[in-house]
Sequence to fold (187 residues):
Amino acid sequence: MRLFVLCFIGLTLTTVVALAQTSALEYPSNYAKNLVQYAVSERPDGIVRKMYVSRMALEALGKGATLPIGTLLVIEEFEGKRLGKALARDLGGHLIPDKLKPNLDVRRKVGNRPRDFENWQNERFDSVKGKKLVTNLADCWICHQSAEKADFTFTLPALRAYLSSGKLERHDCNLPERQLCAHDFDF
Fold:
């Protein structure tokens, strides 16, 4: 019984520390200007996501290192432009981003412990007002734990491909919402 209580207290303290770390993340002002867009994805539900990374992270990856402490990752979401009920596409056949959705997902690396999700702070902001949104950040952990081999970052292969090509990477998926796609595990 005592072992159970000690384990419960330990898990509770770990959770509190993780939540406290998460809440310390601030809205990244001027992220579209200060970060590098390395990928874009679209989903059949008409959502377009643009993915950004800090320059220092690209520099470290370019030198063969892992994502360093201080790495900032941002995902902004847009509704695809509509022409009547149909989704508008550019000449390449890709959705055209239109209205910015009200959520901005932000991650910052704060540690380098091997295979430890607490190395990352996660937060969701109102993309217009810059205020934190009340959301269940445990969903971030539940999803990203399956990308443990890629430092909990599904787009790490896209980051590396961007470094090689210098071109914006397509990270499209044929599943709606935030369902995981097969290429999310290409690490």
In short: The longest strand covers residues 97-109. The chain has five helices and eight strands. The two ends are 42 Å apart (CA to CA).
